[in-house]
Amino acid sequence: xxxxxxxxxxxxxxxxxxxxxxxxxxxxxxxxxxxxxxxxxxxxxxxxxxxxxxxxxxxxxxxxxxxxxxxxxxxxxxxxxxxxxxxxxxxxxxxxxxxxxxxxxxxxxxxxxxxxxxxxxxxxxxxxxxxxxxxxxxxxxxxxxxxxxxxxxxxxxxxxxxxxxxxxxxxxxxxxxxxxxxxxxxxxxxxxxxxxxxxxxxxxxxxxxxxxxxxxxxxxxxxxxxxxxxxxxxxxxxxxxxxxxxxxxxxxxxxxxxxxxxxxxxx
Length: 267
Known about the structure:
It is built from nine helices and ten strands. By secondary structure, the chain is of the alpha/beta class. The strands form two sheets. It has a six-stranded mixed sheet, with helices on both faces.
């Protein structure tokens, strides 16, 4: 279970991205975070695995307090936290197989990681997952040769091979067309259910959130203004979250855009 209590994030500019956010994600639960651009959704996702350092508050994954871990301890804890990035987070020059296997780096010694000396069991598992995400046969293709939907599937496969307890998913459909977005969401949820993984997903398409999530949190100006089941997100709740903005036109690619760059070493 993920438990977030009193989470705050204030940048050096004085801007408050998060203002005391508290909620829980139960085991095997699919939770969506929605809200207008600049609400703090991406910051929240990135604080959970400390790609961004919280200013105040605590984050627990089961009995581990993530917010108090040293760098070495955090490296081990991140094995349990899979991340699917908005901009895919792939290394373009590497093959599909190499990108997926990078999800196992946290389990390897520094020397084996440097040499990319992956165990046969990891390679077998990577092929299995690539087949599950309909990417069998692409193992030797470079990441920069793939379409957006294919890149997102590889990103999901890389996160799943970690064997995480929870998947953090940051705007997985923002760069995809509607049909591909639906397919990626279906794939993501199917895998999470098959692997018994909890999911915390930041998503701007409200109709996808209500279709695929068990529970929804509405964020505005760094605060939770709605919490409830997907079926409880009525027009009144949407108005409280978006205050007159059209949620179906909300494209959140600018939300915390300065934080979107990723490094394969952080995965």
